C-alpha cells in the first residue's frame, strides 16, 4: 500500500520537500476494515512512530496519516507532539478540499460524495463527515457508496472486477442528486479516478485524499500554522 502511494506523491512535485514513509508494523492490521481495526492500528503504530521521531536527527515538519477514516492516530500523535507541528489525516483533508470545490452560486445545489471500500464504511464515513461538519445532516453531502471490497482486495482481486465494482458504486452515487465532487474513500484507490469518472459522467471532480493531504499539510507547514 505504501509503495503504491509514493509515485502519486512524487507527481505532485512540490519543491524543497522531502518525504519519509512509515508503514504499520506486523502487529497492525494489513487492511483497516472497521473502527476496531482503526484503534488496533493506532496502538501498533504509535510506539513505533515515537521511536522514529526520537531517532530523527532533524525533526519532521508535519505528519500525514494516510488511512481514509476518522483515524485515532491523528489525535494521538498530535498529543504526543503537544501540537508543535501539524498532524492531519487524508480523510479530513479530502473533505475540506471537496467543500472548497463545490460551487455555491449554482442554482441547483451541488453536493459531494464518497466512493469507498467495504460496506462498514457507509455508516462510519457518513458519521465522520457529519461530525466534521458539526451537524446531524447536510445538504452538501450526498453520502457514501461502497464497492464491497476491502482495501487489500483493491490490489489483489482481478482488475476487471475491481473496476466494475468501482464504476457501479460511482453510478449509485450519481443517482443521489447533483453530485459534482467525488472523494476516493481509500488510500488504496489511488489511480482509480477514471473508473469513478466513467461511473459518474463528465464534469465531476475527483478528490484523491492522499494528494489533498500532502498539499494541505505542506500548506500548513509553509504557512507556519
Please, could you describe this protein's structure?
This protein is of the alpha/beta class. The protein is built from nine helices and six strands. The chain has helices at residues 2-12, 35-55, 72-80, 90-101, 120-133, 153-156, 159-174, 193-200, 209-222; strands at residues 63-65, 87-89, 111-116, 141-146, 179-184, 205-208. Strands 4-3-5-6 form a four-stranded parallel beta sheet, sandwiched between helices. The two termini are 29 Å apart. The model has no long low-confidence stretch (mean pLDDT 94).
As laid out across the biggest beta sheet, the strand order is 4-3-5-6
Through-space gap between termini? 29 Å
List the secondary-structure elements in sequence, H or E. Answer: HHEHEHEHEHHEHEH
| Mean pLDDT over the residues | 94
Report the uncertain regions: none
Provide a compact summary of the structure.
This protein has 225 residues and is of the alpha/beta class. The protein is 48% helix and 12% strand. The protein is built from nine helices and six strands.
Q: What labels would you give this structure?
A:
alpha/beta; globular; 9 helices; single chain; 4-stranded parallel beta sheet; 225 residues
Question: What's the structural blueprint in terms of helices and strands?
Answer:
Layout: H1 2-12, H2 35-55, E1 63-65, H3 72-80, E2 87-89, H4 90-101, E3 111-116, H5 120-133, E4 141-146, H6 153-156, H7 159-174, E5 179-184, H8 193-200, E6 205-208, H9 209-222
Amino acid at each position: 500500500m505504501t509503495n503504491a502511494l509514493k509515485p502519486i506523491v512524487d507527481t505532485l512535485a512540490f519543491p524543497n520537500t522531502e518525504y519519509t514513509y512509515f508503514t504499520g508494523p506486523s502487529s497492525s492490521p494489513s487492511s483497516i476494515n472497521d473502527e476496531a481495526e482503526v484503534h488496533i492500528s493506532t496502538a501498533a503504530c504509535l510506539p513505533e512512530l515515537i521511536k522514529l521521531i526520537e531517532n530523527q536527527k532533524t525533526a519532521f515538519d508535519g505528519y500525514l496519516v494516510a488511512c481514509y477514516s476518522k483515524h485515532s492516530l491523528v489525535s494521538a500523535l498530535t498529543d504526543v507532539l503537544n501540537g508543535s507541528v501539524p498532524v492531519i489525516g487524508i480523510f479530513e483533508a479530502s473533505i475540506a478540499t471537496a467543500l472548497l470545490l463545490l460551487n455555491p452560486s449554482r442554482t441547483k445545489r451541488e453536493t459531494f460524495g464518497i466512493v469507498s471500500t467495504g460496506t462498514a464504511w457507509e455508516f462510519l464515513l457518513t458519521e465522520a463527515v457529519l461530525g466534521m461538519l458539526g451537524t446531524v445532516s447536510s445538504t452538501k453531502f450526498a453520502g457514501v457508496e461502497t464497492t464491497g471490497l476491502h482495501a487489500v482486495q483493491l490490489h489483489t482481486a482481478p482488475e476487471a472486477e475491481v473496476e466494475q465494482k468501482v464504476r457501479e458504486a460511482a453510478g449509485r452515487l450519481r443517482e443521489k442528486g447533483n453530485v459534482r465532487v467525488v472523494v476516493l474513500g481509500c488510500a488504496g484507490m489511488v489511480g482509480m479516478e477514471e473508473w469513478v469518472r466513467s461511473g459518474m459522467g463528465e464534469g465531476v471532480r475527483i478528490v484523491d485524499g492522499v494528494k489533498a493531504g500532502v498539499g494541505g499539510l505542506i500548506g500548513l507547514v509553509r504557512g507556519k500554522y
